[in-house]
Design a protein that fits this description.
It is found in: Endoplasmic reticulum; Secreted. This protein is an alpha/beta fold. The chain contains 13 helices and 18 strands. Helix 7 packs across helix 8. It binds guanosine-5'-diphosphate (GDP). Guanosine-5'-diphosphate binds next to helix 3 and helix 9.
Length: about 450
């Protein structure tokens, strides 16, 4: 079933290298850039470029004046990035305008479309998984002008859902996707279909959010951190201010990548099994459990009279509240604590003052519980999650129609933020689904990485 479909025209989102940075010829660090520039030359004051496409972008109206004086050739190109997540598969179709040969491009448009369930639900039927990709490719064909198909790359990266599957099942799904891509009229680069590691997932989401918020300049020190809560895994990524954060972190939590001739050193980690849906299973003690057909998994995070068969990752579990026992925030907190305690590393400086953008399920649950307004996003403190979790858990009947899992989810989020990452009650979180009209997702960063090769290591 389709559950999300939109297209929008954004205003200019893009950044250039400052003049002191060494210029590079266009494409020098590019990885399989579309071969030919096709955009017309445009005048400095009216850089409209997207004539005749199905994604007719708004004429651009802003941009640094000095940039407009020095650059008078723009080119347009497209990128199609599939996010094969544990709970759904999404396609992001980006239209870029390259104005300045040595800067990241301007993002002119994003078309976003999503299907549920994710590829991992087709672990035993890879050809049906392939059909979901065909469905999404149709959207890409409608969106990208025909003349661009041959040079537009199609890429799919899978995250926690496939990481959690046995290797051969994940492989069969990825092979199937590759075949479907090969049938399509798009450009299929080498390694276009892959299982992405958690480090890249965290780094690329950081790139997306810092690009969209205007923080990606050469040698910039001011950036924002990101918190991404998926179904299967959760990521934290930020640029440490203090060396101590780097030195006290497990070595695999420090990632480096190249942009604008400098190397960024980030703190990043993806916790597999700590995504919101996987955490539900772990809280219920059901993760990796046998005897699913007879066992009922109970939790005091669920309404007492609740009982349901619940499917995740192709398996069905019987779950229920504790019929004659207690339910509520305190007991629930103890239960979810088991999923977090001793698992999540507390970075040295997270108690500091960096701003964190939180999206995906952080955003969804904040909206569902009424913490923020869905149309506008918002700023909250960690303590607001806690307060809302208490309210939801202690009034389960009121919130039950929204979701019987809302108490468990809100309590888990609170516990992950406080006990897990070690955030203070007063830490400010910027909740966002979109920034400047573009989806907050690693997909945009991954598309930049394809064209510019960040060499994440
Ligand atoms: N709006 C929006 N939500 C997204 C996007 N990508 C992922 N999500 C959200 O991410 C959450 C699930 O993450 P998912 O990718 O299935 O899990 P993962 O495999 O553990 O990373 C849900 O809240 C989705 O709605 C996106 O591009 N746009």
């Amino acid at each position: 079933t389709y559950y999300g479909h939109h297209i929008y025209n954004s205003h200019v989102i893009g950044h250039r290298m400052p003049s002191h940075a060494a210029p590079r010829p266009y494409g020098s660090m590019d990885n399989q850039l579309p071969p030919e520039p096709h955009a017309p030359e445009v005048s400095p004051r009216a850089p409209e470029v997207s004539g005749g496409t199905d994604m007719s972008g708004l004429p651009e109206v802003s941009g640094a004046p000095e940039m407009q004086q020095t650059v008078n050739v723009s080119r347009v190109y497209f990128g199609v990035m599939f996010d094969a997540g544990s709970t759904g598969t999404r396609v992001h179709i980006y239209k870029f305008i390259q104005k300045d040969p040595v800067a990241l491009p301007v993002l002119d448009n994003e078309m976003y479309h999503a299907v549920k369930p994710g590829l991992s639900a087709y672990a035993d039927k890879p050809d049906m998984g392939g059909d979901t990709i065909r469905q999404l490719l149709k959207v890409a064909k409608k969106t990208v002008p025909k003349s661009e198909w041959k040079q537009t790359p199609v890429i799919l990266k899978a995250t926690a859902g496939l990481r959690l599957l046995p290797e051969e099942k994940a492989r069969a799904l990825l092979d199937e996707v590759k075949e479907v891509f090969e049938e399509s009229p798009f450009f299929v680069p080498n390694n276009s279909v892959s299982l992405m590691n958690g480090t890249n997932e965290g780094v690329l989401a950081w790139v997306t959010v810092n690009f969209l918020t205007g923080h990606l300049y050469a040698k910039t020190r001011k950036t924002v951190g990101i918190l991404d809560l998926g179904g299967g895994s959760t990521q934290i990524t930020f640029l440490p201010k203090s060396k101590k954060t780097v030195h006290t972190a497990p070595p695999s939590y420090i990632a480096r990548f190249n942009l604008f001739n400098s190397t960024y050193e980030l703190y990043t980690h993806s916790y597999l099994g700590n995504g919101l849906v996987a955490a539900r299973l772990a809280t219920l003690g059901a993760l990796g459990a046998d005897g699913l057909d007879w066992k009922v998994f109970t939790s005091s995070c669920l309404p007492k009279k609740f009982r349901e068969d619940w499917t995740f990752g192709g398996l069905t579990y019987k779950v229920s509240g504790v019929p004659d026992g207690y339910a509520g925030y305190k007991l629930c907190y103890y239960e979810v604590m088991r999923v977090v305690k001793g698992v999540v590393h507390q970075p040295y400086e997270v108690k500091g003052s960096s701003i964190f953008y939180a999206f995906s399920y952080y955003y969804d649950r904040a909206v569902e519980s009424g913490l923020i307004d869905g149309s506008r996003g918002g700023v909250v403190e960690v303590r607001d999650f806690k307060k809302k979790a208490k309210e939801v858990c202690n009034k389960m009947t009121k919130y039950r129609p929204i979701s019987p899992f809302l108490c468990m989810d809100m309590t888990y989020i609170t516990c992950l933020l406080k006990e897990g990452f070690g955030f203070k009650d007063s830490t400010v979180l910027q909740l966002a689904k979109k920034i400047n009209n573009a989806e907050t997702s690693w997909a945009l960063g991954a598309t930049f990485d394809h064209f510019n090769n960040f060499n994440i290591h």
